[in-house]
Queue: 4 jobs
Job 1
Amino acid sequence: MSLHTDIKGQMIEAMKARDAVRLNVIRGLLSSFTNEAVAKKRKPDEMLSDEEVLSVISRAVKQRKDSIEQYEKGGRSDLAEVEKSELAILEIYLPAQMSREEVFEYVKNKVAGLPDVASAKSGQFIGTIMKELKGKADGSLVKEAVDSLLTQ
């Protein structure tokens, strides 16, 4: 069963359980899936691949994290709490995230494999690593690891 189909089924479960927060998050995801399908010039009711679904969910997670940061800066902890509860629901669908140590170790091994570390462009290198990890690591953490290891 695809992730898209699984999430559609979970919407019905959330309705039966009267879980308003989970229901709103899932409805938002399904709407984003439809938008993604249309953006890729496909029919709105077509199913997305698991990779496309994870991409949409990752964007939603990033939006929630940005919103939480902005709300906390603005002193709106009530709105930040709502975003945090939605973030917790979204993170269930993502693959397990790598720890800080695992990311630094992975990047260190990649840097060791480079023929000329001095000429490596960090932006391209970060992009390559993010593609290899496919959502298993936070982009800001990868950037931090690459910057610290390439500037040594």
Job 2
Amino acid sequence: MSEQKGLAASVRLLGREGFQVVDAKVWATLASLHNHGVFRVGGTLVGSHAFGVLINSLGARTAAYATEDIDIARGARLAFETETQADLLTVLGESGIDFVAPPELDSRQPSTSFGQRGHARFKVDLLVPAKASELAIVPVPELRAHATSVPYLAYLVSQTQLVPVLAREGACAVRTPTPERFAVHKMLVSQLRRARSTRSAKDLLQACTLLAVLADTHPGAIEEAVERVPASARRHLRAALPQARDLLLPSHPRAQQALTEAA
């Protein structure tokens, strides 16, 4: 507790300088997962909160993002040293937030999402890689929970890193994808969400923001990430290129060139 209090003053200064800082509910949830070792054994933060953490890790500044979802991915069975004594819902409850598992539209299916009780839209979604392109509900026995399978998630979580998430209350380590994998995966899913134009545009904006930074600071990272894209996903990457070019040019020609040549 004293260590976190000491960190809080430094985090406040970072927040004033433009670093992304999560709110109290997100911090309490991620800290609870951290305390139970979920990130240490392979659980991975994905989605917009991962974007904020990655932007910080690259030393870049961008507009604040907005989301009420926490997305946790599990690429393979989480390698806890001993069998967990509490299910995921209990772990989340230790954040001090009253989480419940709302029923799915199909009442015969178990829930893969955990939301705050009441009318709040704050929730945690559990995700796993899909074996095919179809969504499915998959058991996660080591967390005593179920997850939604997502296309191309295996590509996203096959390269990860431990980085700090910042909050006004303190900081802790979370696992995220590498920024180049995150950016390329966002381009892929932007094409899977084309019916939801707002989400698709958000995916592309986050992807291009990271690509612009990476092209200037980590030469070769974009090319390597594109090279590892599964063959079945390359058509989605090519379909996203025209919109990505529009966002990157004329301010970030190096990122545009690296992406186009690699794809």
Job 3
Amino acid sequence: MEETKRQKFQRLAEARTNRIIEQLDILGNLSNRSNYEYTPEEVNKIFRSIERALRRVERQFEDPNDFTL
């Protein structure tokens, strides 16, 4: 049986979401100050970048025709 568009979305959305969460966990490993040194400004830059990307993707779901990167 051929996969429907909905089934394909669900399969890919779950896999991609899980992959993003795993990568965020890996990013979180950098918070270990016994292994890494960083400034609050560097941390803020990381999270501002992530938040911008997240807002951009969220807007794409609000307006699927807006697929700007």
Job 4
Amino acid sequence: MLTQIINGRILTPQGWLKDGSVILRDSKILEVTNCDLAVIGAELVDAKGMCVVPGGVEMHVHGGGGRDFQEGTEEAFQVAVDAHAKHGTTSIFPTLSSSTVPMIEAAVETCNKMMEDKNSPILGLHLEGPYLNQSKAGAQVPEWVKNPNPNEYIPIVEKAPCLARWDAAPELPGALQFGKFCAEKGILPSIAHTAAEHSDVRAAYEAGYTHVTHFYNAMPGFHNKQGYKYEGTVESVYLIDDMTIECIADGIHVPPTILRMAYKIKGVERMALISDALAVAAAPPDAQAFDPRVIIEDGVCKLADRSALAGSIATTDRLIRTMVQEAEVPLEDAVRMASETPAHIMGVHDRKGALARGKDADILILDDKLKVRCVWQMGRIIENTLF
């Protein structure tokens, strides 16, 4: 099937293109051209002057539509994936917070199976824990947080070709060895839920931890010890130029002013936007979080005792709006941080994250309020309020 999108502002890797068109054939982008003359045999889609941008690549999300990836079932995975797709997430890395080994094994089995479909938006599994610092565990289930154990993680990896990323606190005993092992297996090790200081962060980076999980959250910044000042994880990460970060851009987990600062320091190519969304994102009003300790209050998920934030209710479109409308970042950069940059970080930019010839046909149309009006995932329309 041939489709031609015309009359839109098209975001290409080279910048905005006006009076052009995007031509799709089946699941691929056939061409992005500055010509909007109708192609013979193509179904025309009029973007009505709106923005045509690449679909979102969500690299850290726990659930949506009332379901959580920790459930480990195909049904739960599909409901959550579909819920986020309607809000602009065309590629997704399902995320498990700290879990038991049987829970991880169930999610691995499901993810392995669903990824057999080459048109699936699921690109790999992301494990956030359980190898985290107990003092920075936040909303993680404390009983499941522990130190890395090769007798545990090696067998998991051997059964998990789907595993794309695994987070850990690098200061824990055995964490550097764990990071090296993951990196050697092509799995991205990421710094998370940590009390790491500069020497820890530097050692972690050299061991393969090139990325940082929900930057600013569950990690220390500049602080005092007995009257002396010390850099925290945050400043240490800023000092390593090539280390990439991700930020929960709901405007609550990280204030818009700090989102703007992170963008100015790290730049669009080293900062990705994530939702860190729980099951209650893009969900019916009566939906509950998978973790019974979690409540929704003030537009965010919290532990019921208000001791920690526990994830967001955000979606890809909200991340982009927050960056543009509150953090005052140019739209093209906000979109790139939700698509191109995570695609690079996760090693899928050969086919995802940009509107270019030969890439997968993952495309959004956004109106002037940055609301999603149409979504193509692998060339298939899955949301449409445009026509």
